[in-house]
Specification:
mainly beta; Jelly Rolls; six-stranded antiparallel sheet; three-stranded antiparallel sheet; 3 helices; 9 strands
Length: about 140
């Protein structure tokens, strides 16, 4: 029989830092992972997560609700958009992003946080493939 599961971001299953510019709080459920990303002013994917991910651009597909703040996105093909509090957004793999303004951008992501900012070693270990050492700052 299935059971109701309730968790809080105030006591996440895991917290992953983005250097000194934010973090992701991860909640794991039997059927998936939900994350709350807190992107502080000055955060930029290519500066704060790229060294962790080890990819040229973010390769996660995201689907989430912007709780507060604003974020600018640039796809690998040059398409640009800005999302703000109250928006629901889907973002395909292959993008850079950065916080706009002096307010943290907070996003609840229901699709792209399972391995976000986890590092190549942890991601590959979970996938059962040989891991490479993570990039260091």
């Amino acid at each position: 029989m299935a059971h109701i599961s309730i968790k809080r971001f105030s006591s996440p299953d895991e917290t992953r830092p983005f250097a000194d510019k934010g973090h992701a709080e991860i909640l794991r459920f039997g059927e998936g992972t939900v994350g709350r990303g807190v992107f502080e002013p000055g955060w930029r994917w290519s500066t704060h997560v790229k060294p962790i991910a080890g990819t040229r651009s973010c390769q996660a597909a995201h689907s989430g609700y912007v709780v507060s703040g604003r974020m600018h996105l640039v796809m690998d093909d040059g398409e640009e958009a800005e999302m703000a509090a109250g928006d629901y957004v889907t973002i395909p793999p292959g993008h850079d992003a950065w916080t706009v303004g002096d307010e943290a951008c907070v996003i609840i992501d229901v699709a792209g946080m399972e391995h976000y900012a986890e590092g190549r070693t942890a991601s590959r270990a979970q996938q059962g493939t040989e891991a490479q050492p993570p990039a260091h700052h």
